[in-house]
Amino acid sequence: MEDLRKINSMQLYYLWRNLAWSLLCVGIIMGGVHILPFYMAPALSLFLCGVLYTMIWNNNGSKNGSCMLIVETMLYSLLGYTFVSIILVVIQVLGLYHFPNEIIFFNDPFLPSLILLPIALVVTAFTLFFKKSMPSYKQFRAQYGIERERGYFGLMINSETNLQLKNMVCVFAVLTAIVWYYYLNEYVSINQNGRDWYVFLWIVVIAVILDEIYFMMRYFNLYLDLQEHNEIITPEELQDITAHTYLRFYVICGEYVYINRNAFDRLNNKAGVFDTPFITKRTVNGIPTSDVKKIVERMTGKQDGELRFFYGRHLAGIDKHSLLRYFYFLDGDISDYQDMAEEGEWVHFNDVKRVYNTMPLKIATNALADLTRLSTIILTEKTYDEDGYRKNKIKSYKSTLTLADVRKSNIDFQDDKWLNIADFNSDTKFFKLKKFLRGASGKSSSQTYHKKY
């Protein structure tokens, strides 16, 4: 299972590229307005919006494992800047209010930093706190699963994306404070001088360049560190890599699941965690169900169980590697299965749930992700209908999860429908209004971008 820690080197490049292009757009807006006629400002920003949208569009459905959250954030920032700039001009043309010349793009000089930086700050802060509501995040989660389902890279990209967003919030906040303080306290509109252009233009451009250099150095050093620990796959190696299919089996008998309490979590390099002992790898791309059944029978030493598919994922950025999960249900009592072929013990599911709720870090990363997906889907289906409305109108009512529910369930756990309903349901604030708006745009509460494995 060592390959689950492997990271495609291009993924690190995409992490930097997406941030670099996004910040570069800010520099282009600043410099472009200084070079081009001021009235071309909306055209320039709309052109850059087209570039960013094309990047997002080309990435959708691709297999490079790139999350476009940062690019989407800058796209919305530029759209907001363009919209506000045009609205200000319209209001002034209609004679409703007279704004300072510096924020009207028909005037000379026009200072875009006064509008773009605060809007970028607001949009980036919104993304930081509500990133799960962003379309790019939903698209990436639908394609590769939640953070822990994406392997080692999933854990890293989540922390790095948060770092990038926090960095952008800080940069835009500092730059906004500088330009607006200078504009309100030092700037004289009668005569623009070199210091004015240094504050309104060059400080922004220099900050963008320094930020891009910092993250370039950060990801280069990260690449060297991962390479030193043999956790990098280069594009050349990726072309020649052999297809691998990883299998995880959860063996269940009644309300008991067979667990190794002292397993080793290879994703976090941590020992002494709860995990299934039935894990294996096959050097093939996909395995027929009949062969999967033979594998689990050989691993457990029990041939009378019921095999059921849970869900599967390709690893982000390493499409030839996939991880499949299965349930293997045994009839009778656990006393009939005390001679299992792998090291472990029968643990009551209530004990597993207790550890999950109180000490989740005691559970292996993949097992924690699988349990989270299982419980979210089962409990959501019990609580809400497919339109997101509560089946039981008593809000204090909470459903429970049992392994009997899992066995008798006909839910397609591969489908993200119930995960989407868990994120958006009648307990969500302004649910009816948001549902109406989604309906008007052709979406539903259970809409999913997920592609079948």
Walkthrough of the structure:
The chain is of the alpha+beta class. It contains 14 helices and 9 strands. The protein has helices spanning about 10-35, 40-60, 70-95, 115-130, 135-145, 150-185, 195-230, 235-240, 290-300, 350-360, 365-385, 405-410, 415-425, 430-440; strands at about 5-10, 230-235, 245-255, 255-265, 270-275, 280, 305-315, 320-330, 345-350. Strands 3, 4, 5, 6, 7, 8 and 9 form a 7-stranded mixed sheet that branches. Helix 11 crosses helix 13 (about 415-425). The longest helix has about 35 residues, at about 195-230. It is elongated and about 90 Å long. The model is unreliable at about 445-453 (pLDDT under 50).
- Based on DSSP secondary structure assignment, what is the total number of beta strands? 9
Oligomeric assembly: single chain
Radius of gyration: 27 Å
Low-confidence segments, given as residue ranges, are 447-453
Strand content: 5-15%
> Which sheet architecture does the biggest sheet show?
7 strands, mixed
Question: What would you say about this model in short?
Answer:
The chain contains 14 helices and nine strands. By secondary structure, the chain is α+β, with helices and mostly antiparallel strands.
Task: Annotate the secondary structure layout.
Elements: E1 7-8, H1 9-35, H2 41-59, H3 69-93, H4 113-129, H5 135-144, H6 152-185, H7 194-228, E2 232-233, H8 235-240, E3 244-253, E4 256-265, E5 270-275, E6 279-282, H9 289-300, E7 306-315, E8 318-330, E9 345-348, H10 349-358, H11 365-383, H12 403-408, H13 417-423, H14 431-440
Helix pairs in contact: 1-2, 1-3, 1-7, 2-3, 3-4, 4-6, 6-7, 11-13
